[in-house]
Design goal:
The complex is a heterodimer of chains A (about 425) and B (about 300). Chain A has 18 helices and 14 strands. Chain A is α/β, with parallel strands linked by helices. Chain A folds into two domains: about 180 residues, D-Maltodextrin-Binding Protein, domain 2, CATH 3.40.190.10; about 200 residues, 3-Layer(aba) Sandwich (D-Maltodextrin-Binding Protein, domain 2), CATH 3.40.190. In chain A, helix 8 packs across helix 9 and helix 9 crosses helix 17. Chain B has about 300 residues and is mainly α. In chain B, helix 3 crosses helix 12. Chain B is globular, with a radius of gyration of 24 Å. The chains are: A alpha/beta (about 425), B mainly alpha (about 300). Chains A and B meet through helix 1, helix 3 and helix 17 of A and helix 1 of B. Chain A: GO terms for molecular function: maltose binding. Chain A: It comes from Cohnella zeiphila. Chain A: Pfam families: SBP_bac_1.
């Protein structure tokens, strides 16, 4: 009987072992090098500007550190997100990752990242940019970018001139007034949007900024969100009024791949709230240059406060066999001279205060002026947990309120409950 | 070689069977059985592969499903899609199969069969991208509408038309397979029944109702079951063409499972959703098999 059993299952066993044997460590990332050099594997997104800037810094670093070899591996944005999760979950991560700040907290919380050996550089960075890189008093990476999606608006000045509207609009009421006049409707449908903000990112960031600009908070002391405060209700009412009362935009493209900035560069909107990164998109991808990027006025008489996610930066994997060398490279990237070169080439807002305040920087990237002047008003968005879940929860309710399917109060209550439940699960 | 008793396999036959089945069983075990068992285990945990701890939470994931508005909507959308797309598919494919079967020329018959089957060969993700551009504001379909003096339609952005647009694309992409199956079924019906019906003076419609439909019931049952299983799990076109929007009107269960598993990394919760989908597929399939039983041969 045993013999018969063995005869039947030994081939299964052998085949299984062969498969396991073939698979063993084949996907592992090499951490050493046969020529005695320390080899660091660095993963980043395949954004051409980022890749170019990263390669320049690698060349510079390797020239000064002959014992280190850095292998930059790039992936499309969506693939990078999934590969990172798979690599860290399987305990086989690269040494260094260029991560978006909001992702960092989850990896740090689960002990997957190596904290900075010292955090003296903290004071050199804006708090809003550093926020997501901090966890339990330790620093888990250095941001290169201050991610900013607020306080700026793309404008087709020619549309203002053609309509004889005073330019630039300096108050919230002036923006809305101009948007109403610039909206073109044909056969009951909007052909040119006066002011577009109907993407998940634009809606969420505007909503949070409008709460802050009323002097209110959206975080409670126990780490939950409060989206049903009078200020939050007022903000959401004003936002959805843009669709229902002012009729300066509509929901026909909400949630589609046609982002508001794309609509703008195709000439189908007069103004669009967007981050400064869209400027280079407009010039490079859409080949449009006759537009301006101007400050977006505050919703109230208070300064234009806004919430910001921590931007792109470098983290080091806990599992790295060369964490010390990896951190040395990360610190090298954050040196003001190198950070400036990276920000200029990638057209990103600096996380480093010295770079942002350097008059030469704004001379090199004058289109960044509006954003640089706004940096003082930014604050870190906070520990949002699952950022995609949060943004979808708010945006779903925004579209439902805008379509008249639910009241502002009920919609915000639903979003708040969904987000708080997610935050509880993420603790 | 000798057989020790009737029906028993010789050693050589056993060895052949074991070696032949080993690769298939390994593949089945690795890529079907283990993931299914793993998925069933996961649904009782708060599991995120990045997390240090994955607490056992019993039936909490199922309780959460009952109050998850997005999931409930995706549940309704899945059935809305299936309820419209499957009858449309079967009526369309059966009609086309009968039409092609009427063609006497072998060349034209094969040509039409190939033409209708071509979209099945194309990757559905690629087809979805092409149809997305066709449904765009300035896409081919709106251009054609404008040519006839009709207004453009926001096909994928309007909650009313978005699901219909995806159903249209799915039908285009998918009918070829069922046409071929139905044609095979039609070919298998002996001509003698139709000749007898003609001699009795039966019209074409009567012959279809009393001969074709009953004798095609086994084929129809197969088509119905396979299409139902496939459509309940439909994913690529929903992800690519609308990503569940607008207002979650095209969010189906497969898309919601994907988002929870790979966007939000709630794999335990996604496993609970997948289990519900598995149960639905199982129940519908068993029901279809029981209701569609036939006790005849020809």
């Amino acid at each position: 009987m045993i013999k018969r059993f063995a005869r039947l299952f030994v081939p299964f066993l052998i085949s299984g072992l062969v498969i396991v044997g073939c698979n063993s460590n084949s996907g592992g990332e090499p951490n050493g090098s046969s020529d005695g050099k320390v080899k660091l594997v660095w993963w980043s997104s395949d954004n051409a500007a980022f890749e170019g800037a990263n390669k320049k810094l690698i060349e510079k670093y390797q020239a000064a550190h002959g014992n280190v070899e850095i292998d930059l591996q790039t992936f499309p944005y969506d693939a990078l997100i999934q590969k990172l999760k798979a690599a860290f979950a399987s305990k086989n991560p690269p040494d260094i990752v260029q991560m978006f700040g909001t992702w960092v907290t989850e990896y740090a919380k689960n002990g997957l990242l190596e904290p900075a050996p010292d955090d003296a550089f903290k004071s050199e960075l804006y708090d809003a940019a550093l926020g997501a890189y901090l966890y339990n008093g330790k620093v888990y990476g250095i941001p290169n970018e201050y991610n900013i999606e607020n306080d700026g608006v793309l404008v087709h000045k020619k549309m203002f001139d053609d309509a004889g509207i005073a330019y630039p609009p300096k108050t919230w009421d002036e923006v809305i007034g101009a948007a109403k006049r610039l909206t073109v409707t044909e056969n009951g449908a909007i052909k040119i949007r006066g002011l577009d903000m109907t993407s998940s990112d634009s809606t969420n960031f505007m909503f949070l900024a409008m709460i802050l600009q009323q002097g209110a908070k959206y975080w409670t002391d126990d780490g939950h969100v409060n989206l049903t405060s009078p200020e939050a209700m007022k903000a959401m009412t004003a936002l959805t009024d843009l669709l229902t009362k002012e009729k300066v935009s509509d929901l026909t493209l909400a949630g589609s791949t046609e982002e508001p900035y794309m609509v703008f560069f195709k000439g189908a909107s007069a103004m669009t709230t967007a981050g400064p990164w869209t400027i280079s998109e407009g010039k490079d991808t859409f080949q449009v240059s006759d537009f301006e990027y101007i400050p977006f006025p505050s919703f109230t008489s208070q300064p234009p406060y806004f919430a910001a996610e921590s931007g792109w930066g470098e983290v080091v994997a806990k599992k790295s066999k060369h964490a010390k060398e990896a951190w040395e490279f990360v610190r090298f990237m954050a040196e003001p001279e190198n950070a400036k070169a990276w920000n200029v080439q990638t057209f990103t807002v600096p996380a480093n205060k010295k770079v942002a305040e350097d008059p030469e920087f704004v001379q090199e990237v004058p289109a960044m002026k509006t954003s640089l002047e706004a940096l003082q008003y930014g604050q870190w968005i906070g520990p949002v947990g699952d950022r995609d879940y949060w943004f979808k929860a708010v945006f779903d309710q925004f579209t439902s309120i805008g379509a008249g399917k639910i009241s502002v109060e009920d919609g915000l209550k639903k979003a708040q409950d969904a987000i708080n439940q997610m935050l509880d699960r993420n603790q | 070689m000798s057989r020790t008793r009737k029906g028993a396999l010789t050693r050589a036959e056993t060895r052949f069977a074991v070696f032949s089945l080993t690769p298939v069983m390994l593949l089945f075990g690795l890529f079907s059985l283990i993931p299914i068992v793993w998925g069933i285990v996961l649904m009782f945990y708060e599991y995120n592969p990045l997390n240090l701890h994955s607490p056992f939470i019993g039936m909490d994931n199922f309780r959460r499903l009952l109050h998850d508005e997005v999931f409930l909507k995706s549940f309704r959308n899945t059935f809305r899609f299936v309820a419209i797309a499957i009858p449309a598919n079967i009526v369309l494919t059966l009609s086309i199969a009968i039409g092609i079967n009427q063609i006497r020329s072998r060349l034209w018959k094969n040509t039409f069969r190939t033409l209708f089957f071509l979209p099945v060969v194309a990757p559905i993700a690629g087809s979805a991208v092409v149809w997305t551009t066709m449904f765009n504001k300035d896409g081919m379909i709106n251009i054609m509408l404008n040519m006839f003096g009709l207004q453009s339609v926001n096909w994928l952005g309007d909650p009313v038309t978005a699901m219909l647009s995806i159903i249209l694309m799915t039908l285009w992409a998918d009918i070829g397979y069922n046409i071929v199956i139905f044609m095979t079924g039609l070919d298998a019906i002996p001509d003698v029944f139709y000749e007898a019906a003609r001699l009795d003076g039966a019209s074409g419609l009567k012959a279809f109702r009393h001969i074709t439909l009953p004798l095609l019931s086994r084929t129809s049952l197969f088509v119905l079951i396979m299409t139902t299983i496939s459509y309940l799990q439909m994913f690529p076109q929903f992800k690519i063409m609308t990503n569940g929007e607008p207002r979650n009107e095209t969010r189906v269960m497969a898309l919601d499972i994907f988002d929870n598993a790979f966007t939000y990394m709630n794999m335990g919760y996604a496993s609970a959703m997948a289990f519900v989908l598995l149960l639905i597929v199982l129940i519908i399939t068993v029901l279809q098999i029981r209701l569609g039983r036939s006790g005849w041969e020809y």
